[in-house]
Design a protein that fits this description.
Largest sheet: none
Mean pLDDT: 78
Shape: elongated
Low-confidence stretches: none
Oligomer: single chain
Order of helices and strands: HH
Number of helices: 2
Number of strands: 0
Strand content: under 5%
Structural class: mainly alpha
Helix content: over 70%
């Protein structure tokens, strides 16, 4: 979740300030967020099995 918040902040800075020089850093944030989402998704079956989550 923290990685996704960092991505969100980077996007806002980029859009509001036309900061083309941070474009590569922004792309890196996207990659880090994508990785974090995949990591979370991989844990879901385990959490469901242990009863840590419900279907909804």
């Amino acid at each position: 979740m923290h990685e996704m918040q960092k991505e969100r902040g980077s996007v806002i800075l980029f859009l509001c300030n036309d900061l083309a020089p941070i474009e590569e850093g922004l792309r890196q944030r996207f990659l880090e967020s994508d990785y974090s989402v995949e990591e979370l998704k991989s844990k879901l079956p385990e959490w469901m099995e242990k009863g840590l989550l419900n279907e909804s």
